[in-house]
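Hi V.,

Quick status before I head out on leave. The structure for the redesign project is tokenized and pasted below; the design run finished overnight.
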């Protein structure tokens, strides 16, 4: 399992679930940003890196090595209320999952921003998602929505690396049970979706304004405060490609590690996203 390469014949799928609940407007210690602003900036950075990886020659068109999706939960700017909605730009939102080259053609803005990983210079970069915060944390509904889209994608790309779902949150689930199932059951249902290369990977990263050090890839949640144990329990075991990525970034990965980080700061979020999305691509 988890051995397939990323190519035009076997593209990957990377989906971000983004908590947009009211607490995401808290300030992130030492960053000068709110949790929502930091999360949006990190996602935009990773999407840009995937675009660069998908360009084989300078000035050339992007090649479709990746599909992607953005799903927001909590505040829904599209409807102005509470719930879950696809956060892809403009007309792409109706499709749920889109090829990365199409997303690249639909930024919501080009902005001048400082680099998130401490590079001194400012740069103009595209943005595909904006920060929002409001209402509660309907994580069950978000996972259910993700599963509905990924079921169809996995059926269409059975020979691909299985979809990677990265859930970025700062809060307790507020809609469990949802339609009669708790968050663990919805996560199990999501992970039952599979390609021939393995089941869907669900990774979780818990953001916090607390300046206490974060915890990378714990195998157990017994020493973590809430909501750490619950989020860890629904996180997939870290597969070997991500273990290799983490170790190359000088991060210790214990035996039995799961795809979960607790109490992450902005630098940890960026590194976590890099570890979960760093793949070689091949032109097949």
């Amino acid at each position: 399992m988890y051995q397939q390469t990323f190519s035009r014949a076997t593209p990957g799928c990377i989906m971000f679930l983004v908590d947009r609940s009211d607490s995401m407007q808290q300030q992130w210690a030492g960053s000068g940003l709110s949790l929502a602003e930091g999360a949006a900036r990190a996602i935009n950075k990773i999407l840009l890196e995937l675009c660069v990886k998908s360009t084989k020659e300078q000035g050339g068109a992007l090649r479709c090595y990746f599909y992607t999706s953005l799903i927001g939960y909590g505040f829904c700017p599209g409807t102005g209320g509470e719930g879950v909605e696809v956060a892809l730009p403009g007309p792409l939102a109706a499709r749920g999952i889109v090829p990365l080259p199409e997303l690249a053609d639909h930024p919501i803005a080009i902005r001048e921003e400082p680099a998130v990983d401490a590079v001194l210079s400012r740069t103009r970069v595209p943005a595909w998602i904006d920060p929002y915060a409001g209402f509660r944390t309907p994580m069950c509904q978000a996972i259910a929505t993700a599963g509905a889209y990924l079921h169809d994608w996995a059926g269409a790309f059975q020979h691909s690396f299985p979809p990677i779902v990265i859930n970025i949150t700062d809060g307790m689930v507020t809609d469990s049970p949802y339609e009669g199932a708790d968050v663990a059951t919805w996560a199990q249902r999501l992970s039952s979706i599979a390609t021939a290369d393995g089941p869907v990977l669900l990774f979780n990263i818990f953001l916090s304004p607390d300046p206490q050090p974060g915890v990378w890839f714990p195998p157990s949640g017994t020493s973590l405060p809430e909501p750490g144990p619950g989020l860890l329990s629904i996180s997939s075991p870290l597969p070997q490609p991500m273990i290799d990525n983490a170790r190359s970034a000088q991060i210790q990965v214990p035996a039995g590690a799961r795809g979960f980080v607790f109490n992450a700061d902005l630098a940890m979020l960026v590194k976590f996203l890099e570890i979960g999305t760093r793949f070689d691509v091949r032109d097949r």
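Above is the designed sequence. The chain has a mean pLDDT of 93.

G. will cover questions while I'm gone.

Best,
W.
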